[in-house]
């Protein structure tokens, strides 16, 4: 019997029951404000004074007195007193401006290139584009608009769920999986995408709000399974020292630890009902059921008469726990897909790519469980079961009146 049911445990023990913690990179690519930190005044001044190669390298020692002249005389006085010096200074300023524009363009190209290799810069570029759009709508001066965009960069954050801004200066970071799950939970319950309150029993229609009474419960469940991605578009949170607010990733533990935890709740309850220390009624049977896989009174009564009740209870509780967690996983998957359709999330390419990978990860977890069950059943239904069946046949042949004729 033990081998026919595939062993005592429905699933293998989990690799660990510890929760994971966020991981952040020691050195990060600060794509916000890095090109805006360039200062044209410093660039031209260094060109004229020879701190950097350029103007002085071209002019040699012809204009050694440029520093004192620039410091003591207005441009008009220089033009009248020494036209040649004025022309050289003008050319130097133009040269410095050209070098500045060239360096700025190189920086912007590098920032754009980084979006092909890293997640953070792509979000920052999107936030900067949103900010520039707002500046351009109110600022008629193109030069001033560029200056404001360079100074502000992405500090105003990224438009996120419900139109709120996240990841900027003084703003909470984007929690990709959590925020999307909360939005999906609220959408499926016909509420505002950013609501954090519990769903009342009167408003609860369906299994989702019965399994998780509030959106944060669903989000915590899913982030524990598949992990989390924290995103900032401005450097403030990353420099705060708070690992929960810094950009980074957190690994999930998978479904196996959750199944083990549910089995630890179900198995003692079944044992108590079999031993008559707990009443067998609708409430206790519902507490021990695995979602839509219900435990019935007849099963409890049958276990009371079975000599192998201990093994059967272990297997039964594992299967009920597995059914419960798999239903939760499928429900969480539907919630995540609903959240991906929230307008601000659906319009963000980087979010869609990352969330699609998250749903694929959850699918892999479910496939992994099925594979483990099939392999365990195949191994159990092999040599050990054959040995026991042959023993039963030999015992039958040795009974009086059952011996085979020669």
TrEMBL record:
Residues 149-176 are annotated as: Disordered. InterPro entries: Integr_conj_element_PFL4711. Residues 149-167 have a biased composition (Basic and acidic residues). This is Integrating conjugative element protein. It comes from Salmonella enterica subsp. arizonae. The lineage of its organism: Bacteria, Pseudomonadati, Pseudomonadota, Gammaproteobacteria, Enterobacterales.
């Amino acid at each position: 019997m033990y081998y026919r049911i595939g062993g005592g445990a429905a699933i293998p023990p989990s690799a660990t029951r510890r929760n994971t913690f966020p991981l952040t990179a020691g050195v990060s690519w600060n794509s916000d404000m890095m090109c805006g930190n360039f200062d044209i005044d410093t660039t031209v001044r260094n060109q004229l004074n020879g701190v950097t190669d350029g103007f002085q390298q071209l002019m040699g020692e012809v204009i050694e007195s440029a520093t004192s002249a620039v410091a003591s005389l207005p441009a008009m006085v220089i033009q009248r007193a020494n036209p040649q010096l004025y022309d050289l200074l003008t050319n130097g300023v133009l040269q410095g401006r050209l070098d500045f524009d060239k360096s700025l363009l190189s920086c912007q190209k590098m920032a754009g290139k980084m979006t092909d290799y890293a997640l953070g810069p792509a979000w920052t570029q999107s936030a900067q584009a949103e900010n520039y759009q707002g500046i351009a709508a109110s600022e008629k001066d193109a030069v001033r608009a560029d200056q404001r965009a360079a100074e502000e960069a992405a500090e105003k954050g990224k438009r996120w769920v419900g139109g709120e801004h996240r990841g900027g200066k003084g703003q909470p970071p984007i929690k990709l999986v959590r925020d999307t799950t909360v939005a999906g939970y609220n959408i499926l319950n016909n509420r505002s995408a950013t609501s954090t309150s519990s769903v009342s029993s009167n408003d609860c229609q369906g299994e989702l709000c019965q399994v998780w009474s509030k959106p944060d419960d669903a989000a915590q469940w899913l982030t524990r399974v598949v992990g989390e991605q924290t995103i900032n578009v401005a450097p403030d949170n990353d420099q705060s020292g708070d690992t929960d607010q810094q950009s980074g990733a957190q690994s999930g533990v998978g479904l196996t630890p959750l199944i083990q935890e549910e089995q630890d709740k179900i198995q003692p309850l079944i044992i108590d009902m079999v031993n008559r220390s707990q009443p067998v009624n609708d409430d206790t049977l519902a507490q021990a059921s695995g979602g839509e896989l219900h435990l019935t009174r007849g099963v409890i009564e049958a276990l009371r008469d079975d000599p192998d009740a201990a093994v059967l209870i272990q297997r039964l509780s594992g299967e009920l726990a597995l059914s419960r967690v798999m239903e939760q996983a499928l429900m969480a998957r539907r919630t995540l897909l609903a959240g991906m359709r929230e307008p601000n999330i659906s319009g963000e390419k980087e979010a869609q790519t990352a969330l699609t990978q998250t749903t694929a990860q959850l699918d892999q977890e479910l496939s992994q469980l099925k594979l483990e069950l099939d392999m365990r059943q195949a191994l159990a239904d092999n040599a050990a079961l054959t040995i026991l069946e042959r023993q039963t046949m030999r015992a039958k042949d040795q009974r009086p009146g059952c011996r085979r004729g020669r």
